[in-house]
Amino acid sequence: AGCFEEIQQRLGYRLVLQEATFPSAARPGEALPLTWKLVNEGFASPLNPRLLFAVLDGPVTVSLPLEGIDPRRWLPGEHQISTSVRLPADLPAGEYRLALWLPDPYERLRNDPRYSIRFANAEIWDEAKGLNVLGTLRVNP
Length: 141
What we know:
single chain, mainly beta, Immunoglobulin-like, six-stranded mixed sheet, three-stranded antiparallel sheet, 9 strands
């Protein structure tokens, strides 16, 4: 067997979420700070351009673009990404799953979860929607 299995697992990129930090509650119209740490255990970074969104999935589903973050720069090793996203002023109150979504940039493939980047963590992947779920956010009125 040798090192074939390791090479097979690490060929390309292999993004593992280590930690995500964000407030447990927020209000519509507020800026939501978001920080996550990941390790690329693969031998390369993602090759093609990717969109990156923070997704709130609850009473409604909202995709908020995260500008200025390029997953192609996530070379092998550790990365900490800190950003902030403004919640829509008309966001209904309730419990939301907060997720990262890295869909294919092509419009015809964007909503097909098979083309979204999936982190290697088994417990955070939403296969039906193509989301990497970070946790729960309460939106207060």
